[in-house]
TrEMBL record:
Cofactor section: Zn(2+)
Provenance organism: Anaerobutyricum hallii
Signal peptide: none
Family: Belongs to the metallo-dependent hydrolases superfamily. Hydantoinase/dihydropyrimidinase family.
Taxonomic lineage: Bacteria, Bacillati, Bacillota, Clostridia, Lachnospirales
Keywords carried by this UniProt record: Hydrolase, Metal-binding
PTM summary: Carbamylation allows a single lysine to coordinate two divalent metal cations.
Official protein name in the record: Amidohydrolase family
Keyword NADP: no
A Pfam family assignment: Amidohydro_1
GO molecular function: hydrolase activity, acting on carbon-nitrogen (but not peptide) bonds; metal ion binding
């Protein structure tokens, strides 16, 4: 028996602050040593990466796998979604199971765990979407949920008709309770009444194309709810995580709250960084329909500027793809388009391309996609290449050009908003706790390899 199971030789390790030549040795799924010129004879298996980048596996902290939504179920199952994740360098996904009327948190989470235990190809955690307090029972149950590693809960400030929205009083109760327990509330912030008002008006006027999805929930509709959520969190002194931030005004409110010392975290998504609302004018505009919708150039510029300044904490995908025929339900009525787009396999390659082409640094990408999400959400063994942490490792070839096509993806969807996107540099291998799960275009892992991540509460 040799000292190490795996030795990754001659790589350039990337952390949030540094890039340096170093070998990485793995034993029993953990990083066991990081030194220069380690002895190949000490490892069962040696992988010479010849100057390629060695990165921590990414955490996609926002996915919706096999989620009942929009009159159907999102197109990626726990199996196909986590398989795609592995092939994009994501070694941990966070799912968002949604509580239905009367359901308990642990009942819901355990039902999802049963499927994930069989199907997950990467490690997984769950934020739980709370839609109803069940006469206060949920506030009690949160304590046990936190003890079992569910340390974040989501509130939708929208989706009223879908029965998923919570009112301000529920949001306030949850913020207070989460704080008591060392947990955190994540919010989807848009104003439902403004949206309904706009939808009613547009449908009456016969304005039914995907462009009106955007116009019914433009920048200020998101900003109102961002500001409301931040206001509550600030005055209740409770931590808050705003998911899929897409608008400049709301972003600025969060940045100001951070400046004042509030514990407010901001997540944005690759679709908001790559596209503008002009996509909704395209013939296939419905394929880009997600909520909040993709905004105008000014918002996109503000998001990039905040990323560069370190004022956005995480980039995650909101992966929630639907098939073409489902998107087509809304050809003549934008309100019938299932909301959501694909991204889990594109997150890390897209952000790393931004680094490789000089827009941001590789260190920033590691912070946004791995180290910071792991820290914010209590994944103590994830998110950085440090001795003792899980050996979730991505090997990245800066010289490999890659064009995203449906055929080169590993999901179950039949189209992608990323079709044709050219990337300079691409991941060539992904290791999940030291085991190779992705190798040069092929998924080589197995369903069931993924493990549940029991997360730590805030101290
Ligand atoms: O359009 C989206 N984002 N679909 C998924 C559900 C959500 O709001 O995150
Ligand atoms: Zn959302
Ligand atoms: Zn105030
Ligand atoms: Zn989402």
């Amino acid at each position: 028996m040799k000292k190490y199971d795996l030795l990754i030789k001659n790589g350039v390790v990337v952390t949030t602050t540094d890039m340096y030549a170093c070998d990485v040795a793995v034993k029993d799924g953990k990083i066991a040593a990081m030194e220069l010129n380690m002895d190949e004879a000490e490892a069962e298996k040696v992988c010479d990466v010849n100057g390629k980048l060695v990165l921590p596996g990414a955490l996609d902290v926002h996915t919706h796998l096999q989620m009942p939504f929009g009159g159907t179920v999102s197109a990626d199952s726990y199996l196909s979604g986590t398989r795609a994740a592995a092939c994009g360098g994501v070694t941990t996904i966070f799912d968002y199971p949604v509580q239905h009327a009367g359901e308990t948190i642990l009942g819901l989470v355990n039902s999802k765990k049963e499927i994930l235990e069989q199907d997950a190809c990467v490690d997984y955690a769950m934020h739980c979407c709370i839609t109803n307090l069940n006469d206060g029972e949920i506030l009690e149950e949160m304590e046990q949920a936190v003890a079992e590693g569910i340390t974040s809960f989501k509130c939708f400030l929208v989706y009223k008709k879908e029965g998923m929205m919570v009112d301000d009083a529920t949001l306030a109760r949850l913020l207070i309770r989460a704080k008591e327990l060392g947990a955190m509330i994540n919010v989807h912030a848009e104003n439902p009444d403004l949206i309904d008002l706009n939808i009613e008006k547009f449908l009456k006027e016969g304005k039914t194309s995907a462009w009106y999805h955007y116009l019914s929930r433009p920048e200020f509709v998101e900003a109102e709810a961002d500001k409301r959520a931040v206001h509550w969190a600030k005055h209740l002194d409770a931590p808050l995580y705003i998911v899929h931030m897409a608008d400049k005004e709301g972003l600025e409110a969060c940045i100001e709250a951070k400046r004042q010392g509030a514990e407010v975290y901001v997540e944005t998504c690759p679709q908001y960084l790559e596209f503008t609302c002009d996509v909704y004018k395209r013939e296939d505009g419905r394929n880009f329909v997600c909520s909040p919708p993709i905004k105008g150039q000014e918002s996109q510029d503000a998001l990039w500027q905040a990323i560069k300044a370190g004022l956005i904490d995480t980039v995650a995908t909101d992966h929630c793809p639907f098939q073409s025929y489902e998107k087509d339900w809304g050809k003549d009525d934008f309100t019938k388009i299932p909301n959501g787009c694909a991204g889990v396999e594109n997150l890390y390659p897209y952000m790393l391309d931004a680094a490789n082409t000089g827009k941001i640094s590789f260190q920033r990408v590691v912070a946004l996609c791995a180290t910071t999400p792991a820290k914010i959400f209590g994944c103590d063994n994830k998110g950085s290449l440090v001795v003792g942490k899980d050996a979730d490792i991505v090997i990245y070839d800066k010289d490999k050009d890659f064009t995203i096509t449906l055929d080169s993806m590993h999901s179950d969807y039949d189209h992608t908003i990323w079709e044709g996107k050219q990337l300079h540099g691409y991941p060539v291998q992904t290791y999940l706790r030291g085991q190779l799960v992705y190798d040069n275009g092929e998924f080589v892992g197995k369903p069931g390899m993924g493990q549940y991540i029991k997360r730590s509460p805030k101290k």
